[in-house]
Amino acid sequence: MAENKKKAGSEGLQEIVCKACGAPVPIGIDDIDHVTCPYCGTVLVLSEEAAELNRMLRVRSEARRRDQAADLEYLKKKNALDGGGRMPAAADKARLARREIFARIGLIAFAFWCLILGAALLDDSPGASAVAFVQMVLAILALALKKKLIGSGKKRVYTALLAVMWLLTIAFIGAGVASEGSGSYVQEEETWPHGTLASLLPDPDSQHCYVVVNSSDSFYVHVRQYSEDSFAAYVEACKGKGFTIEAVSSDDGYSAFNSDGSKLDLDYYDSEMTVNLDAPMKFTKVAWPAYVLDGRIPVPASDQGNVSWENNSGFQIYIGNTTKDDYNSYIEACLKAGFDQDYSRGDGYFYGDDTSGNHLRVSYEGFNIMEVYFSYANK
Prior knowledge:
Layout: E1 3-6, E2 13-17, E3 24-26, E4 34-36, E5 43-45, H1 48-82, H2 90-122, H3 126-146, H4 155-182, E6 209-214, E7 218-224, H5 228-240, E8 245-250, E9 253-257, E10 263-269, E11 272-278, E12 284-285, H6 290-293, E13 304-311, E14 314-319, H7 324-336, E15 341-346, E16 349-353, E17 359-366, E18 369-375
Antiparallel strand pairs: 1-2, 2-3, 4-5, 6-7, 7-11, 8-9, 9-10, 10-11, 12-13, 13-14, 14-18, 15-16, 16-17, 17-18
């Protein structure tokens, strides 16, 4: 058995003395029961005590290596999370850049949803306002989850909220585009509205009616996907409803009054018919504007009128109880009053200026109605 030699320290057995040449022989971690002299090559058998100490050293060294590896792995993970005082790796930089982009997109989207809510409220649309309000609530909830202010900030919940918000946005925009582009079609069971001016007209028998105006004073509708033959038949049907007074007809249009004074205008173009019906105009005794009373404009023979508008720049008045002969006589009076500058006169219309540049326009509207329009120069 080789002679053992202990070295001072806390590690226990470190080396033995070669019994052949007397040289110190270090004991390695992997040397369990024997060691070879590096000087003379003699194989030295370790004592039982030395072998046990050597095994203890080996176990301790392996434990130390495992601890070092665990510490190194921890430092790597820590550096990946907070940089550890060093510049992040390329993958970390890319991930941070993506987060920054998504954050900006989120802010833009939040502002966009705010605008949608404002537009819906201004448009006085209850349905659109409700959708926009739900979007705002979801946006706030998603932000709270993201910041872990409420509940759990699980990625699935956050992603689901964002998906619902964007689906609502797409539906909101799609509905707006559809409304802007094609209007709101009357449902099949309500192909033609009733109870208003529309009841004075025949039903065009179409499921493609887009009602623009439907009030007690005016009715205006587009009838799409309508053939020329259907248009011609509809004109005849309107005549059957009494719209024959002062009728003007062409291949693509028809206008006439009924006995009550309601005026109908029909137009046809590119497989679409437009129907415009106005209620009879109501007249009262006219309070003539000052520029009529001071003699600048001739006073019409009838004092029954309907003032469309009047201000310090001019006026527009419809005069009732005016026949076509009364209209022609009024044009002659206007020419004598000085509105003979750059004037033009035709069947049912007249316009001209006086020497001061004041402008006058007179037209015969039909059904004994005349329009008088006046405006001061440079106003």
